[in-house]
Amino acid sequence: MSDTLTRSRGAELLDGEFAQYAADLAADVAKENPGFDWEYITMLVRAWADWATLVADDPDSGYALTADMDEVWHASVLRTRRYVSFMGELTGGRFIHHEPAPDYGTPGMVRKTVDALKAAGYGAEAKVWFASDAASCSGSDCRPAAPCPGGDVAPLVLVA
Length: 160
Description:
two-stranded antiparallel sheet; 6 helices; globular; disordered C terminus
């Protein structure tokens, strides 16, 4: 088995044509989470891109994020125009919605995601994929309480 990792399409996009989007996401996450160091934030952005690639390739998988990675997703959807463009490129014209799902975010689902990341060759940094911390949202405060979205993928509809 090789120790060489494959870069996900999402990570490639964030390092290429969406580099400014990635930088803005990281800055937004840093602003909302002053306790996160910059290295950790950049790892979260990359992990979110890897996760989004998995979901784009297998929409019914139920792959999960950690609560910290969910901070990146929240930052991403607030920048709607670039989120739509990024998702369109990543998914081939579809859209990953951020909506509550009743069974999302269990530690077992995070472990399933980590296994899928490793199988795809993307790797999974232990620092960001601690399986005991699955994302959970409650209304506008997306941290404690009810489950968060599982990456429902739907056709992308552009609104002028």
